[in-house]
Design a protein that fits this description.
The protein is of the alpha/beta class. The chain is globular, with a radius of gyration of 31 Å. Helices cover 51% and strands 14% of the residues.
């Protein structure tokens, strides 16, 4: 028997070398899990198959770990390293032979009891051949149909046709010597180990492939038979004078329009195309904090991915990254505008389901969509949607639209028995391919509908766009969030119908803000957004190369020593390397003379690069205010900084979705300034050093926040200058005054003039109590707004205030 097993293993290794290409996750398990190749090592896998052992052996060889096919000596016992929980099904039988995994587990524990000082590591290994989830009700069996315990004959075909898509995931090892010391029954430990392993592998497979797929006909039939849709069909028939069958056909058309048609084959093809595309477009994709997603998947969480929305590339990039991390691609909520030929069909088979921009008043569509969304969650599919509702045209996060989030929470109140978590995702680029289109739209052009012609144009213009960045933010556990915010939320759960309790709307709004905050907490600093931030704050948008490098190093040091948030990601390169890389992207110009190089933003790019600055401006808001304060006062205290920031920070927080101001953050910033020689501390007073280098660095930093403060100043001056303001007139006057300042002071930042940004600021000022709303919705200021204006006077140049004051005075007269 051993000879036969050895021959089969040798054949499996030969086949593995010819037909198998294995993807390993994580890429460096030794470092991530602290694996020690010198420790006695065992591997637990779901299936005791020679092909699985051969695939695992190839991984162990690359990592320098003991090979799975060998034996391990623990004391005097010699034990096989590989423990397969289930045996394959015999060729001419439907019942697998009894597994020896339990006996192997008992032998391992017996060896540990006999050698109590021995430390070993058992590594769970998930081994998958392909990522096809299979069908809920498959037709006639084939050699390639889904099977958890295929016979050796069927496994040959699986390896032959799916070997290039082999997937091995190693998980954190279990230190069994710790289990021995527990008070649990030692004889029960092998059983406990196998039970835990079975649950682990079931979750790993579900995370990698997703649940089995129903046929569309079966899915649609079950949805149309649901109580909520049957009720909506009856209401539709009654209100529009239709027959039940006509209303039912209308509901079926809506399902055809909405529903995804996920295909593993399409995803595999798309993966190959996207691998080529990313190589063509980007120098690389930086992915951070993916371990957070794996931790949720390992615990069996239902996951909602909620990314920010910069570009149409977001749809592809996030799905691609998730798939490459060994997780099933989520079903994606996409605007119905993307359902055009042939892209719509491709997106649909890649997991996209389509949603109309608005369906207010269409009760049948609302019922159909809500029931479909509920079924996705109930069956265990992860889902992705963009809560901003559309792509950001300015580079800053848009105010969240809560409709999809509210529907998701309603669907979850159907009694899903799994924990549910939202994963916010930050996506950033060194170049957004639609940037020129965004600029035209901000200038007043109408948004063009997506079409196949637009796709071909995009393909024609493919070029190197630098690097892409995808950071997974801190997850939000929905059950925990609702328990903290609304302790009685479970009372609203109904087993079959989505509920809309009275507390849903305010909690959804609170949750949406938390999602956006967690996205901005994990922003990515890169060469383009850092240099854009610096040069847009410099005179004539230009600096000498040495000065630019000095400022860039200052910003890097500031974020390392006084980070806005621990999730903010930093580039690994130094200032010199970042600049060299940025210059290859043709966004900045180099002018040479006998004194050295000057780096500048070309006139064509001056408006465009504001987009990249806005990706990270929130990370420097507090340091910039402190820099401005130092420039105008020369010396500051922490208390004085707090006084000013406590007036400004609520507006910053609302505008940029910031976390509450940390108690020690101001001191961290000043300490960083001190470490870089910009200030000197005497007791509780921080004094700016008087050399020109210090003043220049602080001026550039402080100026990065100046346009934001100017917007606040314009609004406060107008409201305080006119006691009783009509809202529409205020918005019009703001636009006029902003345009005037833009011409006087060379302002080219699109959001400075953006009506949506103004509307958001005005709402924020009302919420914070700076602006009061009286009779007929007319607006007026108060003492709190006057105090804010005094802070703004302190922080802004006199020439800016003079322009604002002159205009407001002449207007009021």
């Amino acid at each position: 028997m051993r000879i036969f097993s050895g021959v089969m293993l040798a054949l499996a290794k030969f086949g593995n070398a010819l037909f198998v290409k294995t993807k390993l996750l994580p890429e460096n398990p030794l470092e991530q899990f602290g694996l020690d190749p010198n420790l006695p090592t065992f591997y637990v896998a779901r299936l005791n198959a020679h092909s699985d052992i051969a695939a695992l052996d190839s991984v162990c060889k690359k990592l320098g770990l003991p090979k799975a096919s060998g034996s391990e000596k623990v004391g005097s016992a010699v034990l096989p390293r590989f423990v397969g929980i289930q045996n394959p099904t015999p060729l001419f039988s439907n019942t697998p032979k009894e597994s020896v995994a339990l006996k192997q587990g008992q032998a391992i524990f017996q060896a540990l009891r006999a050698n109590p000082g021995t430390k070993i590591q058992i590594i769970p290994a998930t081994i998958l051949w392909g990522r096809d989830p299979g069908k809920e009700k498959p037709g006639l069996g084939t050699l390639l149909s889904s099977s958890l315990t295929p016979s050796w004959f069927r496994k040959c075909f699986v390896v032959l046709f799916s070997g290039r898509n082999n997937f091995v995931r190693l998980s954190k090892p279990i230190d069994l010597s710790q289990l021995i010391t527990d008070k649990a029954d030692v004889d029960e430990l092998p059983h406990k180990l196998l039970r835990v392993a079975r649950v682990h592998f079931r979750r790993q497979k579900l995370a990698a492939t997703g649940p089995k797929l129903p046929s569309r006909e079966q899915l649609f039939s079950s949805l149309l038979a649901s109580p909520s849709i049957k009720h909506a069909i009856a209401q539709e028939a009654k209100s529009k004078g239709l027959s039940q069958e006509e209303a039912r056909r209308e509901a079926l058309k809506m399902l055809e329009e909405i529903a995804a048609n996920y295909s593993d084959a399409m995803v595999r093809v798309a993966e190959r195309i996207l691998t080529w595309l990313w190589t063509k477009l980007y120098n690389g994709i930086d992915v951070k904090n993916v371990d957070r997603v794996h931790a949720l998947a390992d615990k069996g969480h239902e996951i909602l991915f909620v990314p920010c929305h910069r570009s149409h590339m977001d749809y592809l990039l996030l799905t691609y990254v998730i798939y490459h991390q060994g997780l099933v691609p989520p079903h994606i909520a996409a605007g119905v505008n993307l359902n055009f030929f042939p892209a719509g069909g491709i997106f649909r088979r890649s997991g996209a389901f389509f949603i109309r921009r608005s369906f207010a008043g269409n009760k049948l569509y609302a019922a159909v969509f809500n029931e479909y969304l509920s079924q996705l969650f109930i069956k265990g599919y992860s889902v992705k949607f963009y809560t901003e509702g559309g792509r950001s045209r300015t580079g800053r996060l848009l105010p969240p639209k809560t409709g999809m989030l509210a529907m998701s929470l309603q669907a979850m109140l159907r009694g899903i028995d799994r924990p549910i978590s939202i994963v916010p995702v930050y996506i950033g680029y060194e170049h957004v391919m639609e940037i020129n289109t965004y600029l035209k739209e901000l200038a007043g052009d109408h948004k063009k509908n997506e079409s196949i012609l637009g796709v071909f144009k995009a393909i024609k213009n493919l070029k190197n766009y630098g690097r892409g960045y995808l950071n997974f933010g801190e997850p939000i556990n929905i059950n925990q969030f609702l328990t903290e915010q609304q302790p009685n939320w479970r009372e609203a759960i109904h087993p079959t119908e989505a509920q809309k309790p009275s507390w849903l709307a305010p909690q959804v709004a609170e949750l949406a803000d938390k999602i956006m905050t967690n996205i901005n907490n994990t922003a990515a600093l890169n060469a383009v957004n850092l240099i854009s931030l610096i040069l847009l704050s410099a005179e004539q948008f230009a600096l000498s190369k040495s000065k630019l490098l000095s400022q860039l190093e200052f910003y890097l040091s500031l974020q390392r020593s006084a980070p806005y948030h621990i999730d903010v990601t930093m580039p690994d390169e130094n200032a010199e390397s970042l600049l060299a890389h940025a210059l290859t992207l043709n966004k900045f110009e180099v002018h040479q003379d006998s004194f050295g190089d000057i780096i500048s933003i070309s006139e064509r790019e001056q408006t465009l690069v504001n987009y990249y600055k806005n990706n990270i401006l929130h990370l420097f808001a507090v340091p910039a205010v402190i820099a401005q304060f130092l420039l105008y006062k020369d010396a500051v205290t922490i208390e004085a900084c707090k006084t000013h920031l406590h007036k400004l920070y609520p507006l910053f927080a609302k505008e940029w979705f910031l976390t509450p101001l940390r108690e020690d953050y101001i001191q961290d910033v000043l300490t960083s300034f001190e470490a870089q020689g910009l200030v000197t501390r005497h007791d509780e007073i921080w004094t700016m050093n008087t050399d020109s280098q210090t003043r220049s660095q602080l001026e550039i930093l402080g100026k990065s926040i100046q346009l934001t403060l100017e917007r606040y100043a314009i609004l406060s001056a107008l409201v305080l200058g006119t006691p009783d303001y009509d809202k529409a007139q205020l918005e019009q006057d703001y636009q006029t005054l902003a345009g005037r300042l833009g011409r006087l002071h060379g302002i080219k930042s699109p959001e400075f003039f953006d009506a949506k940004v103004l509307a958001s600021l005005l709402n924020s000022m009302k919420e914070q109590g700076y602006v009061e709303q009286g009779a007929q919705n007319r607006l007026c200021g108060n003492q709190q707004l006057d105090a804010l204006q005094q802070t703004l006077v302190t922080l802004l140049p006199a020439r800016v205030w003079q322009s604002i004051a002159d205009t407001v005075t002449s207007h009021s007269e």
